[in-house]
Amino acid sequence: ALSISEHKKVLVLSKKESLETNTNYAQGGIAAVQDAQDSTQNHIDDTLKAGKGLGHQKAVRIMIEQGPGLVRKLFRTGVEFTMVNGSPELWMEGGHTRKRIWHCFDRTGESIETTLLKAVMSHPNIEVRDQSLVWDLWIEQGCCQGVILYDSSLKNFYVEPAQAVLVATGGVGQVYRYTTNSRISTGDGIAMAYRGEAEIANMEFTQFHPTSLYEPDAHLKEKSFLISEAVRGNGAVLVSQDGLEIMKGKHPKESLAPRDIIAREIDSYIKKHNQNFVYLDLSKMDIENIDQKFPNIYQGCLSRGIDIKKQNIPVVPAAHYICGGIKIDVDGRTNIENLFAAGEAAFTGVHGANRLASNSLLEALVFSKRAADTVLSVEFKRPSGVGKPNIKYLSPDKATAKQFKTLVKNILWEYGGIVRNKQGLEKGLEELEKLDQKIKEKSNSISSNGLELKNMMIIGKLILASALQRKESRGLHYRTDFPDTDKNYEQDTICTIHQERRNDES
Ligand SMILES: Cc1cc2nc3c(=O)[nH]c(=O)nc-3n(C[C@H](O)[C@H](O)[C@H](O)COP(=O)(O)OP(=O)(O)OC[C@H]3O[C@@H](n4cnc5c(N)ncnc54)[C@H](O)[C@@H]3O)c2cc1C
Prior knowledge:
Layout lengths: L9 E4 L8 H4 L4 E2 L8 H11 L6 H21 L5 E2 L2 E2 L12 E2 L5 H14 L4 E4 L3 E8 L2 E9 L4 E6 L3 E3 L20 H8 L4 E2 L4 E8 L15 H5 L3 E3 L19 H14 L5 E4 L8 H4 L1 H8 L10 E10 L2 E3 L11 E3 L4 E2 L11 H19 L20 H18 L6 H21 L5 H22 L24 E2 L1 H9 L1
Parallel strand pairs: 1-6, 10-17, 16-18
Antiparallel strand pairs: 2-5, 3-4, 7-8, 8-9, 11-16, 11-19, 12-15, 13-14, 14-15
The protein binds flavin-adenine dinucleotide.
């Protein structure tokens, strides 16, 4: 928005309060090469290695070459990166071979979000409108004309025309029972792009963060509290309830192995031993200063009754990030004219089959800037004879929608979770089909929750169908019936609504 606003008017919409975003909750940081010991090629190699053959090399190179300059620009704009002797203090995280994580203690996202929001809000060419839920894209003749918003106070819809629309609606974590994601992460942008005939890629690659705080009533909460990977990067170790190091002998990097490997190990350990969690043992860390180094995690745990200066942290995996999304080229374009995407909702291909820690803020930063540059360079053509969009929709009421949302979350956790197989994925899809029927029967009202539910249903089906299609295990996607990686699947999984319609007809 800031890049575009020098030349055009921008409307920034968010469905809740402007600060209620995953960006605001990001802890660990943003990866960018800075140290003389590091190099662009090292970061590229680490990223492609994590991506397990699916990382898009061109996009990865662009992100890693252009990232450091944009991170320094964030610093100049006011993001308070933690500095030591005039240089950024760089952290190490899993899968990275060098220290390259810029951070603001463990509140990196908050500093980025508040700094950028302040700049955006004071810009005369930018209007920021929160509590504004976009229900759909207005697409006519393959060209995006604007968006359709839902006004919850009047319970009606209205249209905002635009020369260009950029979808940056974030992730999908809320489709799972346990997630670190904000309540806004219901995959709305991906679902609306899918309805609008955009290509959606690699939705089977859900990243489960290995260390979210275990709380017995987590399933009743909006989200789980994250214990950043940076804690392990600073010496914490995963241990069983009996104190055994659970990653010993499982991976050369032990507790700093890639997230997918650790998440599966914890999942299998707790199932095998009939336990609810494992511990993060902090005793090898500099515990004295832990409250200063990780103020957010320290306070977050303390407010939940755990003093991490004295106690280990009980942790379990939770849905954290989606590597798939709306397919864009390296300039932010989707296959729909005048429709762009960026951030977690977009698929650039940089993460391949697994995202390296702290590469997602970097991806969002680099490709949103490139999308902005494209928007400024394009001469927008409108198809002639465009009428008004259809804006009559129905959904279940709030209470019913909330109940149904819980069912979606349970289905996805059960059948589309850390470990998958054909039988489970088919069962999951079957359950979603049954739920679809119930939703249709109850769609006699309208509510924000009901609209989100409809989006969550699309996301759930995309995840399960993509996972079913990929008959192999690779990176984040693990199938017990196809435990090996298969060269024939060294390609992206693309879903379109056309394909779904064709399948329905056959
Ligand atoms: C707890 C946590 C910690 C993380 N830590 C890190 C980290 O250290 N480093 C890293 O690189 N990544 C991290 N990630 C991932 C990273 O934070 C996200 O991928 C990234 O912030 C996503 O940014 P975004 O702009 O795409 O989406 P968000 O920041 O989530 O913003 C989405 C916006 O879209 C709006 N929106 C959604 N739907 C609608 C709708 N229908 N109508 C109108 N508005 C809508 C929302 O209101 C919100 O304003 C973390 C994620 C989580 C959850």
